[in-house]
Amino acid sequence: MSKRSVQLESRPRQRDPYFDNVRAVLITFVVIGHALEGMSSNLGDAVYLWIYSFHMPAFVIVTGYLSKTYRGSPRQYERMVSTLLLPFLIFQTYQLVVRVLVNGSSLTFNFWQPGWTLWFLVALLIWRLITPIFKIIRYPLMFAVVISVLAPLDVGTDGFLAWGRVLSFLPFFVLGLLLERRHFEWLKTAHVKTLAAVVLIAGLGAAFLLNGHLARSVLHMSRTYEYMKLEPGKAMLIRIIVLAAALLLSGAVFVLAPRKQFWGTSIGKHSLTIYLIHAAVIFPLRFTDFFGSLTGVGKIAVIGSSFLLVYLVSRAAFVRATTWLTSPPLRPWLIAYPEEPKPEASQRSRVA
């Protein structure tokens, strides 16, 4: 191996701006969707259905793709505890306190039922832990689809550790694990971009047609078929259609997302911080009449504020200031590593 090859291998892998751009688009849709959740209007409800038909499935696909390198190493476990488990505990406690102070609920600590947006942290933790399983089994995507379709038949999937969503969104995570960079490269052509735009516009039109006829819980994929009052056969068919539509719309987003670095790339880089902080800002308002009392101008202002919130929270200064909440440092008070072997000892072992 040449000296140049050794130098290239020793360099850290450069971050791909494309996937940060995809996440920037999706996290913006997440914030807008949560702002629309409390509003009531035909236009807002239709846009809400459209956003929820693809934004989390696409996010989960990207998450699965970026989890391909998971091997269960100590460093990766540390990362999961720091960015998933501890933030979940922190923001779950925050939501419980808000319920007491704003909604007058009794103070009952329950960490087995993730509050509102926090299901994603629990789901991502579980998905990454079972990643090695889906790397060794045959037909992992088919297996995941079957799980997604059959899981809501079990009434035990409601609430507890977000199992409903963990199992329902599993096909998108597994698909991300299976995708290669060449699959995303195939999406560059102009004809595919035109088709992607048509797909997204058609999806928005379908959302207007289905508005008032399709329950939001069908797209949230967090409830059992029994809770949604659907017959099992009909419910499973609807789930398959929802999975297929989400995949098609997600693919359209992947096609149209910018590929080169630009001012919004940093938004995707800090998408998890945005995900946590924006929910903390909006959550107390859910217990008031703030969203319900908005007029047309007020609703437009809130949507505009969503863009502003995404931008401000993604700034480097804000990210650094909130790291203790979104990614608490674990060393040295919680994480301990075995001592590194001394160089001479390592050399002796190699010689032996």
Provide an overview of this structure:
The protein has one domain (16-351). It is globular and about 50 Å long. It is 67% helix and 0% strand. It has 20 helices and no strands. Helix 3 (42-52) packs across helix 12, helix 4 (55-66) packs across helix 10 and helix 12 (190-210) packs across helix 14 (232-256). It has 352 residues and is an all-alpha fold.
Estimate nothing, just give the exact number of structural domains: 1
- Report the span from N to C terminus: 23 Å
The residue-averaged pLDDT reads 88
Report the portion of residues in β strands.
Answer: under 5%
Please compute the radius of gyration using only Cα atoms. 22 Å
Could you spell the SSE succession in H and E letters? HHHHHHHHHHHHHHHHHHHH
Classification by helices and strands? mainly alpha
Helix content: 55-70%
User: What would you call the shape?
Assistant: globular
Largest sheet: none
Structure summary, number of beta strands: 0
Which spans have pLDDT < 50 for at least 5 consecutive residues?
Answer: 1-12, 345-352
Number of DSSP helices? 20
Topology of helices and strands:
Layout: H1 3-10, H2 17-37, H3 42-52, H4 55-66, H5 74-103, H6 119-129, H7 131-136, H8 140-150, H9 163-168, H10 170-178, H11 181-185, H12 190-210, H13 216-220, H14 232-256, H15 265-269, H16 271-282, H17 296-313, H18 316-321, H19 323-326, H20 343-351
Helix pairs in contact: 2-3, 2-4, 2-16, 2-17, 3-12, 4-10, 5-6, 8-10, 8-14, 12-14
Care to give the gist of this entry?
The two termini are 23 Å apart. Helices cover 67% and strands 0% of the residues.
